[in-house]
Amino acid sequence: MDRGDGVDAARLFEDSGLTYDDFIMLPGYVSCGLADISLETKLTRDITVRLPVVSSPMDTVTESRMAIYMALLGGIGVIHYNNSIQEQLAEVRKTKRFENGFIMDPVVLSPEQRISDVDTIKEQHGFSGIPITENGQVGGKLVGIVAARDVDFEPDRSKLLREVMTTDLVTAPVGITLAEGNRILRKSKKGKLPIVDEEGNLVCLMSRTDLRKNQDFPRASKDEAKQLLVGAAVGTHDEDRERLGALVEAGADVIVLDSAQGYSVFQVEMIKWAKQSYPQLQIIGGNVVTAAQCEGLIEAGVDALRVGMGSGSICITQETVAVGRSQASAVHYCAQFCKERGVPVIADGGIRSIGHIAKALAVGASSVMLGYLLAGTDETPGEYFYEGGVRVKRYRGMGSPEAIAERGAKRYMERDETIKVAQGVSGTVVDKGSVVDYVPYLMQGLRHFLQDVGCPSVQELHDAPPGKIRFEKRTPSARVEGDVHSLHSFQEPHRFGRPEG
Hints:
The chain is α/β, with parallel strands linked by helices. Helix content is 31%, strand content 17%. Strands 4-5-12-13-14-15-16-17 form an eight-stranded parallel β-barrel, surrounded by seven helices. A four-stranded mixed beta sheet has the order 6-11-10-9. Strand 12, helix 8 (240-250) and strand 13 form a beta-alpha-beta unit. Residues 495-501 have low confidence and may be disordered.
């Protein structure tokens, strides 16, 4: 019975374009505990993930390290393509080869580097146990290891590492199991265990702290061979067909056609070619914001669609070219159209909080693509630095002048233009710590949302009978009331960064 409390989604969106901040959901009947709530969802027609989160294919967000941990946590990462084919293939292979507990790309130094280089690594990454190889690279001959005890009390920080490194090493042969390596670490009381081949070349590394951190990822997204799931982005130019084929051979589980405006003859032809060449391949098309765009790409053969145009925190498409759509409205209308055709949609852009993730799912998205929320975490590419006394990392849109200069223009179909029009900006974001801690925090907040609206799963949220999920528009003063207000001062909870100290 409708008692006049709120409106359904159809009524909510009938008048004007809305963003996530323009409405709120009304509470329902709490019917289960948080531990009983399932966040499992469809990424594509044929791929299911345990968490509804996807890391964006941006060069300041997703390479192998992010993809590995997103998959371990139950989501999936999409490797960007602002690089050469071989570079992208290497990132995909690192993810597919990853075995829980083995560090396949450890930080390595050479004997000719200095203690000051160890200091830099410790400041940037928070550790100082570093293997030393002859050439300073993984695959080089292992000659020593430097731990904190080797350098902490050395006053001369310019001293070469060959003068201070430990050469009496405990190593293990390549092929060792995680359990065997763990036993060696416990017995030796070492913090790091280098894994070497028959010639003594460093292959990978085991870390006591990483073993503790990685012991249990029961929700990991894996394929039938028990390897982590990983996505990879490509463009829609003819030469991208070579890239796509190579990515499939490397083991990419899903391909994202990465275009700011996805409804084009270029993407339609790419989808048709890819489906003909690789019939089992799952393809995510987009970006789209209208039902007409969805219809065209679904007819071409996509298995999921990214929804969003100009709503990202580093995107200026709507202001620059006056084309796009308010993100919540775009997700609602696209999801409504795609649901009838069995095609999941991924809300891409405008996600700044747990509440925004919840609202994107409530209006029909099966998952959300995160750029800003993951930017600044330990697993993103790039190094931390200090800006105004705050520890930050760089974050840039793929339409920013810097990204365009490094091949990013192909996403905006202007690769051959003599005048480049920027549709994004570059900036910085505060250090958020590790996604190993941060994503579970976001997902626990999402469980609270589902509990409060009376839906024990994402699937039941989407299958709720008409009118069960109720919405209400919010005035600017209502938004002020719903956030912190009226205090002289307050302590910000640990939501957006690493706590001080």
